[in-house]
């Protein structure tokens, strides 16, 4: 039977097909020859790469007849059977009747372990004795099977022996940050990777390292932020569907998927759930630029959203086998559940503190005294309510100031300027830089830069004005956040950024 690389839906060769100039051996300069267009990153179809990583093999079949329709080009190396001898044959001749029969219970959007297979027990196999771990998943109307050689270094403690103590340690977490610190320490103990980080996404897309465990010789990346383009939207979606992903060697040569010409239907295999899925060539070069040879990544979810990631980096190639990935997956599930409960606990504590403060204010206002005097006596609680350093209360045309303020006259000017700001329908107006509204307030930035205005009456005469001083915020980025890539003027190719050195950004407001 003739075999050829899997093709795209339009019939063109897959990106990772043999002969593609982007995947030839590395040039002398050490760069991986990858074409990179930042504007197209989020549209890259990373779930249908047409190739796998070389440390395992893959077969695909249709349940209608269980004939093998696709296989990876390295099948002989892993399983001892050539693609030519396998394509079109019955799946049971490779995995056995029992394993094939169990595939009837395979659910969509799920993976199933088929246990282990001795490669030399496969009829016609030409490899020495080797044990393979098999796992199956759906890809459209096909069923795919990953074949991974079982690896256990001499003296290595299996992950499950360490997992219980790591999970038990999570009981001591009192906040999301402390939970992340325990998670990275535990995952590093289990995995042995050089660096393990907890990475949290912001609402706007960028993220930051909120916890880290690393080898003593490595520089700390704790607190560093990275732009949203470092982890594009489709990569984030991938970690919601398949929680764990791994790259064994960032300089690997992708292994194309093959199919017999008479078996081909021009529909590429969806490898979303494959542990062997070949990752984007841009991502591989990105890893090389970071000095990372191997990675293991675990998605952390909060409800329907991706909260963040547990990211493991290693300087040398390293295969994350099924047992390690299963342990990492369980850690990810438990951490995700606890993140939600700890977030609720932190929110409850904040609400409880606010309610206590409001009770103090209400109790003061219930006393038989004028409103202005009551609010003045409650000024400490008013400051605590919003975390302000100064407050001005204007009742009946009289302005009284408490804490750090620029005085009644300037406070009245601030109220006038804020009341001219367009409202969104409520009685609160908030700004984080008064000098941007009126330059005359710049000289008061040390005590009044941020402001919150609450109107107490329909005529907008009675108000409470809270003030905060200007605060300089310093952000340490992992490289210039605006430097997404570089252009090779000779070839016209753009490659991912190469510098991840600390890049300091200061913002006042």
Automatic annotation (TrEMBL):
Residues 1-33 are annotated as: Disordered. GO terms for molecular function: photoreceptor activity. Pfam families: GAF (PF01590), PAS_2 (PF08446), PHY (PF00360). Residues 1-19 have a biased composition (Basic and acidic residues). Signal peptide: none annotated. This is GAF domain-containing protein. GO terms for biological process: detection of visible light; regulation of DNA-templated transcription. Residues 175-333 form the Phytochrome chromophore attachment site domain. SUPFAM superfamilies: GAF domain-like, PYP-like sensor domain (PAS domain). PROSITE patterns: PHYTOCHROME_2 (PS50046). Keywords: Chromophore, Photoreceptor protein, Receptor, Sensory transduction.
